[in-house]
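User: Fold this; tokens only.

Assistant: Input:
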Amino acid sequence: MFLAEKMDIISILVLKKDIDAAAEAIAQTGLLHPARIEDVEDRAGDLAPFESAGTVAAYSALRQRMARLLGNSFEECRRMALASAQDIRPGSLTELETALPLIEANVLPLLSAYEAAESSLNELRTGRSKHESLLALGYPLAQLGQSVYLNGVAGIIEEEQLEKLKSLLGPAPSLVFPYEKEKRALRVLCIVLRKDQALLEQALKSVSFQELAGMEEFAKVSDGLQENIRALEQECDTLAGQLNAAREKVMPELTGLLGKLDAAILVLHLRDMCKTTAHSCVLAGWVPRANTHELVNAVAAKTGTHVHVEVVPAEDLGQVAGGSVTVPVLFSHPKFLKPFEVFIETYGMPSYKMIDPTLFAFMAFLVMFGMMFGDLGHGIVLVLAGLMVMAKFTPLRNIGKLLMYCGASASVFGLLFGSVFGVETLIPALWVRPVERIEIVFAAAVGLGVMMLSGGVILNTIHAIRTRSLSIHFFENTGPLGGIIYWIGIVMVAKLVSSSMNPESLGVEFLLFCAFLLLFFLKGPARRIVRRESPLFPEGVLTYIIESAVEVLELLMGYLANTVSFIRVAAFGLAHTGLLIAVFGISDIVARWPAGTVFAALVLIVGNVFVIVFEGAIVTIQILRLEYYEFFGKFFKEFGVKYRPVRYADAFVDSAG
């Protein structure tokens, strides 16, 4: 659980005619994380690639036809195919090209008719919107068209022509009213006296006016459009029902075809990862050491004796030691840790040789959440919410588990703090009431910070030992030397506090602190002495003194700031109590109103819900900030890649569509 699964890199050499069979075995077992064969064998770089682009394109075109047939049901079809992924086998292009037209014959005529009706409906709706925007103004347009005194017209001009049109109509009584804008075009209504008809026509011609319709036609056109729209809507509803029935009828058969198609695409992608000679193919990838024999046996069973597999442990591959090749990482976590994997992966995947921090992050998260959110009643609510999420929403089971864990931690600290829905008189405090003994809670928060920072330094040191780089990391701020200085400083502060800030209580600790701080100051020449390099101060003594002084200050201030940062754990615990005190205060005020008992109860319920949701989210964010920056930052120096084996189930997620 604390170390990544041991990995082997394997290279598989098969005849060209057997590559599809080998790829099927790889996809069925779901154990191979593909790698470039050039990473295993330098000479493979001279081999030719296996080109399958044309075949992949043909399969992808069939997939697009299936997606069009299924419409919104396509994702449901993919989920059904995913559920039976282990039983699916790749389909040949000939098989799929023969079967799909038979299905299309039952669906395409209805689909084409529906698409045509829907297109006509959208056109009519667009036309209606152009008329309605003018009709909505409330002008008596039909009467305006029949007026013996006025003449009106509606149409489209460019936005920059508006002022010019107003200017041209300025000599006569007129109205130019822009009633709708679409990009840089304006729809305008122009009204002038009948006697100024010639002036209007000349002005409109000058601004490239596009007339929409006469005033009398607007009302007639709008009524006709509405009748046509209603008829087409009914037609679309009828066709949609028939189309859905036809899709439902062919969905089982299409699901099977889609599974075969996506499985075939996956095999083709595996083929594209190969390098070839005239008669053979070679493919490489990573496999967990515990499963290497299973994969090798599966490939051999599919290809007979015409296969050669070479297995190399990751630790023995020179490119891994040199850092040019990254080993994929697989951690085997117990089920209770699964909800916390996402927190680690959000920050970054640990490298292959790193200690897995998930368990430490899990414990620290729950302790900090409990201290910040310590309330028995609120914890029980979170537990119940987690149980409900797990029961009702299967895809969110990990979130449900996380809510349950947080609720359990909050409940435990609620018992320690003696708090139930903010009431501190119902049960005794098994440890301390935060408001009454603030100094104890703050000391506990700082102590937790010291433990987490120390844990980060220890993990960094273990990683340096495992990677045989202790001599490099020893002098780092987060390395063993920085940790020793930090721990001696903690002891000094503890002795000062216990002795009422008496400097005479510091003896050997102060001398050790100065000695190790001096060693940190002289780490540059110390490293060069160990490596037998010269000169000791390549950039000059004065430059080194200034740079090292800044680094010493950064070391001391960094650890001090990191430690003090954990005071927020205690501060949020007090804020939780303070928010509930405010809720009770508001409830007491409301209780004096008419029917105040009901309103007071409502305030208490709403207030507690607000505290649970709002502060729960804020607390979670603060915990992640402390874990990511203060804890992970001490040892998370190298990032890896997650182990992602090729398997048929992934074809329905990653295949081209």
